[in-house]
Amino acid sequence: MARLADYFVLVGYDPGKRGSGDGQGQILQRFPEKDWEDNPFPQGIELFCQPSGWQLFPERNPPTFFVAVLTDINSERHYCACFTFWEAVESPQPQSHGRNGEGEEEEEEASSLVQPAQLFAPKSLVLVSRLDHAEVFRNSLGLIYTIYVDGLSVSLENVIGNLLTCTIPITGGAQPDVEDEAVRTISLGAGDRQVIQTPINDSLPVSSCSVALLFRQLGITNVLFLFCAALTEHKILFLSSSYQRLTDACRALLALMFPLKYSFTYVPILPAQLLEVLSTPTPFIIGVHSIFQSETQELLDVVIADLDGGTVNVPECVHISLLPEPLLQQTREALSMVLDPELEVADLAFPPSTISASSLKMQDKEIRAVFLRLFAQLLQGYRWCLHIIRIHPEPVIRFHKAAFLGQRGLTEDDFLTKVLEGMAFAGFVTERGAPYRPIDLFDELVAYDVKRMKAEEGNKQKILRHIKELAEKLYKNENPYPAVTMHKVQKPTEGCHLRLHQKPFPHLDEGTVQWIIDQATAKLQTAPPAVKAEKKCMVPSGPPIAAILERNGNALANSARRLEVVRNCISYVFENKMLEAKKLFPAVLRAMKGRAARHCLTQELHLHVQQNRAVLDHQQFDFVIRMMNCCLQDCTAMDEHGIAAALLPLVTAFCRKLSPGITQFAYSCVQEHVVWTNIQFWEAMFYCDVQNHIRALYLDSAEENHTEQESAEEPQEAKSALEIASEQLRLWPTMSREKQQELIQKEESTVFSQAIHYANRMSYLLLPLDTSKNRLLRSSGLGDVESVSNSFVTNSIAGSVAESYDTESGFEDAESSDVANSVVRFINRFVDKVCTESGVTNEHLKGLHVMIPDIVQMHIETLDAVHRESKRLPPIQKPKLLRPNLLLGEECVMEGLRVYLMPDGREEGAGGSIGGPPLLPAEGAVFLTTYRIIFKGTPTDPLVGEQVVIRSFPIASLTKEKKISIQAQADQFIQEGLQLRSCTFQLLKIAFDEEVASDSAEIFRKHLHKLRYPQHVRGTFAFTVGQSPKQAMQPKAKEKNPSLRTLSKNLVKNAKRTIGRQYVTRKKYTPPAWEQRGSQHFPEDNEDEISVSEELDRSTLTPSSTMRPSEKMTMTHVVERACCRDYQRLGLGTLSSSLTRSKNEPFRISTVNRMYAICRSYPGLLIVPQSIQDNTIQRISRCYRQSRFPVVCWRNSRTKAVLLRSGGLHGKGVVGLFKSQNAPTPGPSQADSTSLEQEKYLQAVINSMPHYSDAGGRNTLSGFTSAHMSSAGKWGSIRASGRMSSYALNVEIGSRLAGKDLLGTQHNGTPAEPSFLRQHRASLYIIGDKSQLKGVKPDPLQHWEVVPIEVFDVRQVKASFKKLMKACVPGCPSSDPSVAYLRSLEDSEWLSQIHKILQISVLVVELLDTGSSVLVSLEDGWDITTQVVSLVQLLSDPYYRTLEGFRLLVEKEWLSFGHRFSHRGAQTLAGQSSGFAPIFLQFLDCVHQIHLQFPMEFEFSQYYLKFLSYHYISNRFRTFLLDSDYERIELGLLYEEKGERKGQQFSKSIWDYIDRLNKKAPIFFNYLYAPEDGEVLRPYSNISNLKVWDYYTEETLSEGPPYDWELAQGQPEPAEEPDRQDTAAPQSKRRIIWPCYDNRSRVEPDAISKLLEELQNLEMELGQVPERWKDTWDKVKASQRTEGRQEGNRTPSSLLMSSGLSHHRRSLGVYLQESGVGSTLNLSLDSDTSSTSTPSSGKPGGRRSTSTLYSQFQMSESENRSYEGSLYKKGAFMKPWKSRWFVLDKTKHQLRYYDSRMDTECKGVIDLAEVESITPGTPTMGAPKTVDEKAFFDLKTTKRVYNFCAQDVQLAQQWIDRIQSCLSDA
Predict the structure, then answer these.
(1) 3-state class of 1446 per DSSP?
(2) Which ranges in 232-359 belong to alpha helices (H)?
(3) Which of 340, 1025, 1787, 1823 lies in disulfide reach of 1819, CB 3.0 to 4.6 Å?
(4) In which band, very low, low, confident or very high, does the pLDDT at 370 lie, cut at 50, 70 and 90?
């Protein structure tokens, strides 16, 4: 029973405090006057009676009533029912006489005077109660007011006394009996009577209509917002102009939150004086009158609900987490069904007339039912996550939040996470967690109805029915006695508050009231206490979460396979089948992404633990650790799926013996996970274990025979901990004191022992193996764990003890103490928290605090030993380092450092989206040799673990090296690494293994740098090869050939003397051939045939008057140089002695530069016009940059036009050359004479051309039609058949090249037909740089013309190349690979530079071909000039397209004419800053583009070009070292002594190397080579016609770059041989070829190489000396030509041995398709072959293609027809005879037939293997009449007999013979 009201208070206006504007209230009277013991009088009631302040009003307002709620210090709520009415007050003006407040007569008297308007003051009657019975309070206070206002004859004191002594039951019971009726019905003694309905179950809130009203005011969405805001602890403020509504709204919100209770500030009506409460930092629900709306505007973090306006305003900075879907949607739908039932039928044509919403009271309950259901769904299964950690004396219960979220699959859900962390939920657990207590509607719902709710989901009718059922229960709870709601309470008469003469509320007599109260109290004390029997019972747990959330089946099927893999792998590990385990391992690691697999792993591992221990060998241990780490790496710190929890006992079980007495446990290797530093995880684990132990404590061994401990989370037939607890709690009151004490002590010691156990466990997982490294603690922030902990327990004891142990334990001097201390602090904090919460005694707790530092210290000592030993362990899982193969003379500079090769931006190797095996990352080692950087290792993915991965590049090609940090493997830390980029288009991205010390990595970098940039070119590999590395540093060690050395020195001295002022540079270069002289045209000793001296102007060149013999020897060598051979071939200069030299030759070979005095970067012998003297040359040379004056390098044999090259002109040269002659020349006549000489020089060039004399020196172009011009030329490829092929030689050639006029050109890159042809064509075009030729006007009088063009400089080439490398070999994957690659390729502008070079070259070719000479004079004459000049010669002269000619071209134009190879390749320290400029590579790329367009014109293959591209920067050969011949002579490189050749030779010349290789194997040879005579090539140069060279993108990971032939040879094959022999089963001949791994051309050679190889093998088998492949090839071609001539009708089969083809169905056709040649190239590779070969125009030839088998090659199938002709064949039974075309094919051993000769579709095949006999036949019915009967024959096969008939007897005989011979052959 409880008092209905505790206090009655009368509050009035306080006139004394007036003046400050607002008045104040004062308590006039209160009853009882002294406080109740159990309930003190609340403070501040006067504020709450008038929340908006005490004010006087000019007129009487009607009485008001509202209920305010006050919360006291014990968070008990007091309901203050305030009934306010207004009373007149005396006027503030001074009156004629005073008044005594009692008498009525003064009232009358006063009214007779004229008075100013009266003021009225409020007065409040207040009831203070702990019960919320608003209606009863309203009636009771109304009754008191009625008695007072209507002057009823009832004593107010009596009524108030009765009111204060009235007691009611707190909760309802059964229907009222007769005597019970009195208890329910109260009367205040004024003839009134009220029935009080107390709720049946007081745990359910009472809401009457408030919830429904709240929804009416705000709407569904807004209320849901408020509901979520309240649950997630936001601040909520209600505004309304009605106080009662504020109270209702707040009450409604709390009712919705049931079963959670709001535990923060709750003030439904906040008085004006307390408004600053709104800025409190804690959450609240507060109501404020809307007149204070303006004051609430600046609240930034408060959700404001305006009840009158129906809005909810959420500030920007507040984020309200809403309910998780689909609950949110379902709740909305259910609410809308309840609140707006018409919505469902609104669209119906005949809406039912009956639908209407329930009454307000019912609607209120229905809404609450919706929210009850919502909570039941949100919290379903919560009881399975409760941990009961103490049962006696009082249950202590904790909730395992992480497990709950994990099992519900809502870990990511904001809302639920916040709710579970909130105070309300903590209260819920404390209140509802108890296993033995009374239960209410919510408990039943969550236990029994969850399944039903799941089943009804989506069925609106059923949901509504459920809601109505729940609503009924709630309504019944609030109104248990609907029959007896008869109230009889007097109401005041209408309008009584307006009575003018109302006496004030009387002063009540305290004595009377007190006497009534005392009476009642005495009576209560004598009465027996009314015992309300609490119906306690065991709380039902409901189904476990897993049973509710059924998973989808598909995922299960998939995961079942994965789990199988996990199980197998683990059993392999424990059965020691390591190889098997290794193969499954990656799949296991991938499976670990799934939760099921992780659980499976923990279960499987549990099975392998016996007696808490499992000793493994090193490899097993390693596997188990890696699996555990992988398992844990996806766990969050919360460990919501209990993975870390399941592994916790395992990490202390698995171990390995390191040495006697030292064992390493798994925990030392799995510490790197954030979960171990999360104090909440440890708490949950601790409580879980404690619960298991407590449960075991009470499981009586008598009734429990099986001892295994089920955890509470796995429901089994055994009792759960909660069931046991509830049983114990039921028995508790019946036990004796001693028994109780004993149980309490047992439980306490259980908790204590677990705390010790956990202190140990935590030290295991928190102390790192190497305690000197503070790794773990730093990364996870153990220091500030308080912030994580969700307990509200203060660290009471920890504080005091912590100080003491730090100083006493005596280990703080150890360097590990910081780690130790922080671990000790962490464990202390944990122990404090859990022990305080689970009631461990203080003595025990102190004992623990003393133990913990010792535990930690002991563990540190054990760890030190383990750490020491584990360091000695050989690293297990790492594969042994594979040694790379080295070249002869290549030596290791640094032994292998263990590294991981990481995937870069190229996807092929990494598996990735392209597919294919993940070859990278690979683990192995990086080696540094004198020549290369090599990585060699194996992929980390065991599926491809048998493969070897090699990636290497020459050190000399390194362009960029940067440090990076990489995570090499998922379970390792970030490591330092290097990214090395090479200009051979390779990238090594390596991460050093943790065993590699960082200083080793540094040494590696230093060595690398030293090798990359040697001090001098002598330090490069080409020189140091074969010497010991020390000698490389001291070149003076031995002098082999003094004569040459001295000679070189003399030369150099002379040159230096004369050159003095000239700019000398060093430049990149590579060594020339040493076996060159094999191909010389003249005898060795031809010194005397050359007389050099007559042209020498000795004064300028040599101090000595005669040539020394050594210099003569030099001349011999100079003559031997390649250039001379070429000049002779071109007929440019003869080398006969001067006497016989014919003076009418236009050009001569000048030796003016033989001492390299005039131009250091030119060769010693130069071609100059016959008429020019050497001294003139010396003067002219000064006008040109680097003294590179114009010299002739090629002559067109047909038009006799010449190609010249030079450097650009110096400024003054330009002026002199192009200004008109009569202009005054600045400066001395010296300049003038030079320019004249220059002009003379050019004129001499022009005069040398034979047709110069025509037309008075003017050559008109009018007669040149386009047809004429294209007479000898071949455009692009065969595609370009009928198009204009003349280059437009219009005025502005240069501007067109500069790109202005390109709109006029045709789409494929050829210039358009000129609109008009020039009137005359110059005899000499000078192609110069636009920037130099500014302001130069064309001069009509001269015979030459300047073509200014814009070219890119070397800087642009460098920049472009860098971008090209990044595009082809990106450092890291980009977001969208396809776009990124093409985009970056375009940005690099590499192809547009290629386009530019080709365009200029084709222009020059065109000019030369039409008979004009061209001088290319760009930049310094050694970069672009060289590119253009070489390409022009290549295009114009077929000789340069042979192997020999191309070598000659490179030697002449690139080496002799001084392209600065060393400088451009940054080969020495000096060149480091300038960086790498790939001028030569660009040239080779251009050649590659031409090669693609004209595949039949080149004798060499694409591989040859790639080989040169690789080795010109590799420094393996000396050919491309240094910058000019002069420097090569200086080093004694150019000409070795005769005797020296036999010495130890590592190929110093790339050409010799190529020659030797070419003799061995046809790798450099192009089988398609079938040149047309005198062919001039004109390739397309448009970017759309250019292809990215595959040299840039391809790689061969199986062997490294395929350009070091010795290294690449002979690795793959032998391994496979033995397998083939032992397996008798026929093995598939197919091989998988991985694009980035295998060397395709070797694994899958083209047919011809394959055949040549087979021939060689056969010859070896037969014991013959194998022929050179070249001889074989030439023979084949020769025989093929003759065969082709003899037999017009058959294609020779000699070239393709058919048998070879049938095995390897490969042919060139496959390769040729991209090359732009017609795809049906016949393999008869000569253009004059037999008529049957398919013409190369791409149209099929005269022969029909017959076979389907080879149709993929799109070649004519004639090779496979041994014999063919027409035969009649009898059809099957009852079918007529038909004529068919038969083909006998020996190769396939079959007889095929077709409908007709032209038919390609084979109609049938007779397999000759099945033929039994051939016999002469007889004609049958329907056979052809005219035929001789001997022409019939039958073919009998195993299946049937075929009848044939030939045209005549001979033919029949022939067929029979042929078929017989086929059979006998077989």
Answers:
(1) helix
(2) 243-257, 327-339, 342-345
(3) 1823
(4) very high
The structure tokens listed for 1510 are 């690789």
Helix or strand holding residue 1175 (H, E): helix 1174-1181
- Compute the average pLDDT of residues 1678-1705: 49
Longest dimension (CA), the chain: 166
User: Which spans in 170-263 are helix H?
Assistant: 178-184, 210-218, 220-231, 243-257
Q: Dihedral sign, CA of 638, 640, 645, 651?
A: negative
- Could you list the beta-strand ranges (E) of 799-942: 892-901, 922-929, 932-939
Would you give the DSSP letter of residue 610? B
Q: How far apart are CA 1564 and CA 1555, in angstroms?
A: 9
Identify whether 32 is preceded by a cis peptide bond (ω within 30 of 0): yes
Distances (CA, A) of 1724 to 978, 1575, 1678, 1694, 1717: 52, 21, 11, 10, 15
Taking each helix axis from N to C terminus, what angle separates 1377-1388 and 1390-1409, rounded to the nearest 10 degrees? 50
The residues that bridge with 892 in the sheet, in sequence order, are 929
Place of tokens 């290097």: 978
Q: What are 997-1054's pLDDT values in tens digits?
A: 778 888 899 999 988 888 888 888 888 876 654 433 333 333 344 444 445 555 555 5
Return d(Cα 1816, Cα 1860) in angstroms, integer: 13
Q: For residue 1119, count CB atoms less than 10 angstroms from its CB and return exposed for 0-12, middle for 13-18, buried for 19 or more.
A: buried
Pull the structure tokens for residue 1775: 């079918």
C-alpha span between 567 and 603 (Å, rounded): 10
Q: Give the whole-angstrom CA distance, residue 784 versus residue 679.
A: 11
Average pLDDT of the segment spanning 1570-1579: 84
Instruction: Determine the residue type at 289.
Output: H
Spell 998-1013 as b/e; 16+ CB within 10 A means b: eeebeebeeebeebbb
C-alpha–C-alpha distance, residues 1047 and 1111, integer Å: 7
Using left for φ > 0, alpha for ψ between -120 and 50, and beta otherwise, residue 550 falls in beta
Contact 145, 492 (CB under 8 A): yes
- CB 1463, CB 1066: distance < 8 Å: yes
Q: Are 204 and 440 within 8 A, CB to CB?
A: yes
First-to-last CA distance in the chain?
116
Place of tokens 């309470």: 489
Residue type at position 1055 = A
Cα(1102)–Cα(1053) distance, integer angstroms: 10
Which helix (H) or strand (E) is 1856 found in, with range? Answer: helix 1849-1865
Q: How far apart are CA 433 and CA 420, in angstroms?
A: 14
Please give the pLDDT value at position 305.
93
pLDDT the model gives residue 969: 57
- Mean of the pLDDT values across residues 1304-1314? 42
List, in sequence order, every residue forming a beta bridge with 1169; answer none if it has no partner: 1147
d(CA 1187, CA 1210): 9
State the pairing for strand pair 1577-1578/1763-1770: unpaired
Between β-strands 7-14 and 24-31, what pairing exists: parallel, antiparallel or unpaired? antiparallel
Residues 658-668 pLDDT 10s: 888 888 888 88
**DSSP character for 1044?**
H
Q: What is the DSSP letter of 1184?
A: B
Sequential DSSP letters for 702-749: TT--------TTS--SSPPHHHHHHHHHHHGGGS-HHHHHHHHHHHHH
| 84: Cβ contacts below 8 Å, ≥ 6 apart | 49, 50, 63, 64, 65, 122, 123, 124, 125
Q: What single string gives the DSSP state of each residue in 12-32?
A: EEEGGGTTSSSBEEEEEEEES
Q: Is 1540 helix (H, G, I), strand (E, B) or coil?
A: helix
